[in-house]
Amino acid sequence: MAVSLDLAFVRSQFPAFKEPSLADQAFFDNAGGSYACQAVIDHLNQYYRETKLQPYHLHPAAQKAGAQMDLAYQRLASYLNVKTSEVHLGPSSSQNTYVLAQAFGKILKAGDEIIVTNQDHEANIGVWRALEARGIVIKEWQVDAQTGSLDIGELEALFTKRTKLLAFTHCSNIVAEINPVAEICARAKAAGVATVVDGVSFAGHGLPDVDALGADIYLFSLYKAYGTHLGVMVIRDAMADKLGNQAHYFNKAYRQKWFVPAGPDHAQVAASRGVLDYFDALHDHHFETTDSTTEKAQRVRGLLHDAEQVLLSKLLSFVNQHPKLSLLGPSDPAKRAATVSIIPKGQTSQELAQKLVDQGIICGAGHFYAVRLLDAMGVDANTGVVRLSFVHYTSAEEIDQLIQALEYSL
After folding, report:
1. Strand pairing class (194-198; 217-221)
2. Quick one: 393 and 259 in the same domain?
3. Same domain, yes or no, for 109 and 233?
4. Cα atoms in the 13 Å half-sphere on the side-chain side of 50
5. Are residues 259 and 367 in the same domain?
6. What is the pLDDT of residue 2?
7. Model pLDDT for residues 83-99, shown as the tens digit of each residue
């Protein structure tokens, strides 16, 4: 029997829903950053009060600080189904991809090829394109101009013996279509091509089983998944060994420092385990206990997905039938995440977004760093789209509030 999400329990775990200044404001800008759960806030508060000092040093408070950080890496790894040594926490996903590009730039040779898409956020495109200055050949896996979709059948033709890397997104932050990551990674692996997958727009809807996806590198932003403002980067050990240490030479013995040359934000790293505390609580509230974290993560992922799909279907139904709205991406909710980008007729995206904000709808308008995608689809990036994004803590009443606001504003 399917388990229904207990929304009252969920919202009780997020202080933002008790905040008077946010009362009656419906949050539809989750793709830009989700609310932080109570467990994360508690851990962050505790760290700053009790252990705000250099971790891992001799004092018991320093030892406690280091232990909290270690636990965060371990718990994230367990939920993502990878080794603890493969989890790296940097300042942001944009910074993480920059470090990655510098690392690849040291091992690639002039004439080697990297495939990027024009569907991605610029953070997973621009850093690789910049390597053209070093003689690296950049190929573009292009979207369909009408749908914004990537055709996996067109990928094979881009592979050659010189192709070393494929960078693509799990889920676009504009068209929101969920790409078949496992199949794409399998094809790349068969061609001897490494993969970097941007999961920023996917992970907030349920942390993925990275091992099952088969990606060599998987990235997402923790602050878009109920946590602190950090970028999570999974680099499988074999790939990390090829890239080598990017930090101070004397830190070579510490794998989790290799790809964070700026050094970790101790408090935020320690507090990030609060996301897993929340997922544990969510699981135990809805399901029988299990010792398998992989099973737990799978159950939570399904719970979040099912809750969002019901609401997404209702919103898409409204958008699809409205004569003054154009939807970007698939109209089938089963093919996309709960991020809905629309273009209004008769007014700019900014004008519509302002009208929605005036009615208590928290949303945004713009290109959202997907300029190349909008250009490919013939959308003026200067005005961009209205992006309405939600997650499992969104209520049916808030979807109704959004629809009513749209009806009034169009």
Report:
1. parallel
2. no
3. yes
4. 15
5. no
6. 80
7. 999 999 999 999 999 99
